[in-house]
Structures
1.
Amino acid sequence: LRASLSVIQKETGFVNGLIVVLHDITEQEKIDRERREFVANVSHELRTPLTTMKSYLEALAEGAWQDKAIAPRFIEVIQTETERMIRLVNDLLQLSKLDSKDYKLNKSWVNFSEYFHKVIDRFELTKSENITFVRKIPKEAIFIEIDEDKITQVLDNIISNAIKYSPQGGKITFRVRELADEIIVSVSDEGVGIPKADLAKVFERFYRVDKARSRKLGGTGLGLAIAKEVVIAHGGTIWAESKEHKGTTIFFTLPLERDQKDDWYDV
Ligand code: ADP
């Protein structure tokens, strides 16, 4: 907070008034600081894979390409890093779109139960055999108006994290609960968990509990930040609950907008 003072003086010299103007500069400063941090983070995140790729390419150029045992391994590293960079740039573009003011959701009515099953089915086909999926999704239809592509991205990010951080033989539970005016969707895993102090921070851009581990698993540190923006754009909320070494649950809500529907029926 910055204050400017003006003293109101009469010709006689007596002070008979005081104007205090308070400017709330903290908010603007916070935005500026966050923007600077974001740019620094992006630069760092891009430089890391580029530096790795450069040194592997140099080694190949200097003769490693002729070594049949080493060359394929080096090329694989370069490929993995390139793929992660592409993911990172795609995530950044996604966030920048979500940040822009004229951003619009492309909503349509879907039966959430059926839709959620379809999203999970896709992961069920590709997941490793030692992870079990448990679905606690109501049989009855739950109609809700969402941007299907965007919510699919939210679920993709949450589910791929649950798989990434699951131990061998772990169970992942998918739930949907229908309340009066919203649904609560959750994905629980039995993985490493998130320390209490980090629970809210994991939704911040580039925040990771364990940087090295996230990188090794191919993460960009933006998955949950994107999920948060999309859920908020839908009028919902997102949060995490976790017990270290026991598991994590990511919850998000989506409003049911029943009032609107009732209005239509009234007409
Ligand atoms: P990342 O690409 O690193 O996974 P996210 O934004 O998706 O980025 O997640 C941010 C961080 O939150 C992760 O790096 C990890 O530390 C933590 N995290 C997210 N989901 C889980 C989970 N299911 N179990 C444990 N930690 C998690």
2.
Amino acid sequence: DYALYHGKRTKRGKAVLFSSDHDAEIRRDAKIEQVLQMANLQEELSVVFQPIVDVRLDETVGFEALARWTSPVLGNVPPAQFIPVAERAGFINRITRPLLEKALAVAANWPTGIRLSFNLSAQDLTSPEGLLHLISIIHASRFDPKRLELEITETAFAADFGQIQSAITALKALGCGISLDDFGIGYSSLSRLHALPLTKIKIDRSFVTDLHEKPASYKIVKSLLALGRDMGLDCVIEGVETREELAVLRELGGFLIQGYFYSRPMRESDIPAFLNLRPNVSRRHHAHLH
Ligand code: C2E
Ligand code: MG
Ligand code: MG
Ligand code: MG
């Protein structure tokens, strides 16, 4: 595996302590960029889907689409490595567009109560033509934009806030939900959050790990959930791996759960079995009423 061989899987932005590691990372990213430039991304990119479960009724409410790249040259390269490279090199749209098409085509076959979440980069939103292209992909699909949630991270606001704001407003007007991803680790001010038409926040997984025995994490999750409630937003909690974490989150009123506890990201073909196990009960009931 290229990623394992060529060094550590650092989280984006994490400080690199040793210059030799740093050099290795720079060389690795240069190689990734070079291979990405030449890649047939339509062919080499695929999408996996991780379920989001409402624990109150034990029902699936949606899936998040996550990018996978299998390069004939490098093997499997994780998104935490190739997405930032493509962003820096200025061609993230070559990744976003085919992935969005693939994800929408899969999601179009799901029961109507199931939503699709899709990650966007700041750069997907900062050019008017780029935004129009995304909107045309959404319209060309057989998927109702009201069932689509677009995820952005706070780091997107470092770009051009006004431009991001108007792009998000346009997507919201199509009926899409707007989720703030990795909530809690960013640097944006709360007043900026209020200036965006958000519908959901996703609490970052770094606060969830062992929160039942980490008072600091516990307090942070508690206040982020309270903040979300005050803002009238749904909160998804990411990275839930254990029964213990889940129990504490339920107690705190965190009900929308995404994490290995329920499932790792899965291929399209595994989705029907998961939905059989945890169908969307309330929406199905709803459909019978109307
Ligand atoms: P994200 O959007 O915050 O996605 C959640 C990440 O957490 C995924 O990693 C998922 O596999 C992982 N995860 C979920 N539950 C657990 C858990 O219980 N334990 C652990 N250890 N990990 C868990 P993944 O698929 O490697 O993606 C990493 C990041 O790459 C994503 O973070 C997102 O920022 C970015 N990304 C992935 N696909 C796309 C894409 O299509 N477009 C863009 N712009 N970014 C993407
Ligand atoms: Mg996400
Ligand atoms: Mg996240
Ligand atoms: Mg992320």
3.
Amino acid sequence: NGKYTVSLIEGDGIGTEISKAVKDIYHAAKVPIDWEVVDVTPTLVNGKTTIPDSAIESINRNKVALKGPLATPIGKGHVSMNLTLRRTFNLFANVRPCKSVVGYKTPYENVDTLLIRENTEGEYSGIEHTVVPGVVQSIKLITREASERVIRYAYEYALSRGMKKVLVVHKASIMKVSDGLFLEVARELAKEYPSIDLSVELIDNTCLRMVQDPALYRDVVMVMPNLYGDILSDLASGLIGGLGLTPSGNMGDEVSIFEAVHGSAPDIAGKGLANPTALLLSSVMMLRHMGLNDNATNIEQAVFGTIASGPENRTKDLKGTATTSHFAEQIIKRLK
Ligand code: IPM
Ligand code: MN
């Protein structure tokens, strides 16, 4: 029934089960998408982890991919495939919304944060070495180019959604040169966006204030260097019920890959315990990106309706008793 083709990386561990839930729900919702399942099993070429050409071609052709969790191979020479994908397709902005799920109570109410993480460099540049035994260096690489494109993305994101505030989260009090450059770029770009109010905040203070009162971060687009975004997005996720609930989009100029932020959870793989919500909500972000807004709303409301309908229809991570497939069936029943 496909008007569109999307590359699907099912992922390791629980990836198969949560991808199946997505495929079943999309089929039932009559979403006009054909899945092109791609294999991204890494190969080592000259000591560098590479993605199979067929996967690169599929994603370049379709421009949009949905991705389940990939295990990071342990051992010398292997880098995370998650990171390799981000870098290969130059997915410079990682958009991570986090919104309270009505019907799933946590100590926090009305959380609605939006975090944009620089996605290609910083501490994630992977430049590390031993100087002499017992002394190592990890390079935190910050460039004007990557800072500018992600900060511009944040301003544009705010503009296009009628949001009036951009907040840069940083630690330039200590990282004077690297975070200092990031801040400098944000201030320069602010001149091009006079309708948007730029503020800045130290990362430790953001953590403190966000757990005290997440409402302070409503209607704000937060943007920050890579590692801060990694950490703060988990914190935000914890406020609403965990990584089983939070989606993300890795955005580039050409290609976008939407992915669940959680890991492959090998301990529960194959047991029907996995929560597909994060992957489903990532796919909802994907649908909106593709302009399939009605399909997005349909699936999103069915997911939230199912979660709210009680613990018998929720997975274990949400204090429920439902299996992955029971949860998916309930979502299907709620589709319009
Ligand atoms: C995330 C994950 C990844 C990261 C891991 C799996 C490499 O934690 O997407 O937040 O650190 O970016
Ligand atoms: Mn993370």
4.
Amino acid sequence: RDGVFKYYSDGMWKTSSSGKSVPIINPTTRKTYFKVQACTQEEVNKVMDTAKIAQKSWARTPLWKRAELLHKAAAVLKEHKAPIAECLVKEIAKPAKDAVTEVVRSGDLVSYCAEEGVRILGEGKFLVSDSFPGNERTKYCLTSKIPLGVVLAIPPFNYPVNLAVSKIAPALIAGNSLVLKPPTQGAVAALHMVHCFHLAGFPKGLISCVTGKGSEIGDFLTMHPGVNCISFTGGDTGIAISKKAGMIPLQMELGGKDACIILEDADLDLAAVNIVKGGFSYSGQRCTAVKVVLVMESVADALVEKVKAKVAKLTVGSPEDDCDITPVVTESSANFIEGLVMDAKQKGATFCQEYKREGNLIWPLLLDHVRPDMRIAWEEPFGPVLPVIRISSVEEGIHHCNASNFGLQGCIFTRDINKAILISDAMETGTVQINSAPARGPDHFPFQGLKDSGIGSQGITNSINMMTKIKSTVINLP
Ligand code: G3P
């Protein structure tokens, strides 16, 4: 624990020449729990060089062998679920049960990706020239999907394992090499996950994991000429990356303000369960969390009472005890959340519970009668605070949803499927859930954000395709 975890380069665990480390503060104790290397730009250069070399032979490795190694990594990951989950508990205060679920889900994602990769990368197209006017059948075109080269993966703190493998596995099955820059909070869980790939026997240099301060190596990584693709999940750093990155494919998932629209004919019990699950699991630190409830005035009192009753049953405390609500990831995050709460208080929101905070632990809070002039109506708290806005028409709900800069997911509760589809079509979000809370999983579903919520589309198949490009070979007949 007082050692500094090494970074992974060229198939070995190494200590940085910087002699410096980055502390990982346990959100619950607010004390340093782990330390990781503060890697230098020179070490990043070395990682990029080995990644480029290793990728050449990896691309020539038969597809079935690439898949076989991924299946091995998936199995090793699941065997190591307990120690990795323990890191998630200590580094990001993820409730113990959810932490194990994240690791198992990650193993399943890697395996599914191996199978899907064999399917979609194992086929191409065969085109003949005379299907286009003016041509004879003298040209045969064979297409295939080839790798991009070196993929830089930057996952967020809230899923440092699952949102890492959701980038790593597609990159590898497609024949790319992979450089991972994990979040500071969650870095040791990520390093342990990388060790599982190491144990599975991937070629040296194909996978690397560098840790360190964003201020020292962040831009250096994302603007590095050796990077051929960036897959980033996180906050608005992604917008900065998109402005600085070169002419390379970008896959970005940047957060959201997922709206939950409740119609007058909604099953309010079902809605209440999903609002509490969607709004408060992992203390609201999910990009797909329910972040604003837009409820028709006529059923608002009944809905708020049902949600209040369920919020009262949420357990609050340490992740080791599997509490529903655990400390948010950093003190600065807790302060940001508090700022939104105080703004709402000052502007007259109705507090359904007393606001309570101890260190990074914030008790779940439902704010009713929220109005559009309050920051919480638009900003993403990434915490256990949920605003309720009462609407007098469905159009008002759709308008509020579409007025947001975000467009990740949304959800609708109604018994009228026709109405649900029409509202879904009108919502400018990448996904709309009907009669359930927003969620990224299952991980083979497409997952994309519109507007400021991201670039490109994730989900296993889309990620594999995005990490390849098309190669055409044309046979010209005499
Ligand atoms: O916050 C990251 C986003 O991917 C959430 O995933 O599975 O909790 O909906 P999930």
